[in-house]
Structures are given as C-alpha cells and as structure tokens.
Amino acid sequence: METSYETVLTYRGRCDVKSICHIRIYEQSGRTPVVIAGELADNTGTFVANGVEIIAHVVKETFLRDRPEFQLVEHDPGPHAPAFKTVVFTHKVGRVDPLHARATARPAGSSSMT
Predict the structure, then answer these.
(1) Most CB atoms within 10 A, among 29, 46, 81, 86?
(2) Cα torsion at 48, 4, 6, 33 (round to 10°)?
(3) Exposure of 41 by Cβ count < 10 A (0-12 exposed, 13-18 middle, 19+ buried)?
(4) pTM for the complete prediction?
(5) CA–CA distance, 50 with 54 (Å, rounded to integer)
C-alpha cells in the first residue's frame, strides 16, 4: 500500500475543544484503505482514544468521501512503548460505539499492509 495522505488533522473534539492528531492514510486499488490516527504530544484537546468517532467522521468526509469503508488504527506513542489498536465501530439505533482491539505493531517497512 502507498501513503496517499499524511497530515496533522485539526478537529473539534469533545465539548467543542480544538484537538489535533497525526493522520496517515494508506491506499491501494482494490483494497480497503487503512488510516492510522496518532496521538501527538502537543495535543491539548481531546485524546485520540476519546475522539476516535469524531476523527473517523472527519477523515471520511475530508479524505475518503468516495470510499465506502476504511480500516482505522489508533496509535498511542505512550511514555514507554507505542501501542496500536484497531478500531471497530458497532452501530446501534441513535449512536455509534467504537470498540478497540490491540493490533500487532510491526516495524517500519514491514509488508503487513501490502
């Protein structure tokens, strides 16, 4: 997969607080895009884990409007070791609940997304 976008995303987090995160989007023809939303040390707003459904909506509307779905991975660099979690959204009448599952971290350059 190739990186199609890499940016610092500014979004309105919980309680309408200005928030930022690092976004990297990988795409390949015929495959579901993969979005990695990373926490930034200088984010003084909503943490990625707490605003993941907002981030997903902004990413969909801004970068992936023409794609029916995408895979979202939350990245937290953490103070000691980075953590990656896949995010799965369940839909209930009137609300969307994100579920987090630990993903396996792979070294840069790994063929896991190809």
Answers:
(1) 46
(2) 10
(3) exposed
(4) 0.76
(5) 9
What tokens appear for 68 in the block?
A: 């029916």
Q: Per-residue confidence at 104, pLDDT binned at 50, 70, 90?
A: very low
Residue type, 6: E
Write the CB contacts of 99 (distance below 8 Å, at least 6 apart in sequence).
Answer: 87, 88, 89, 90
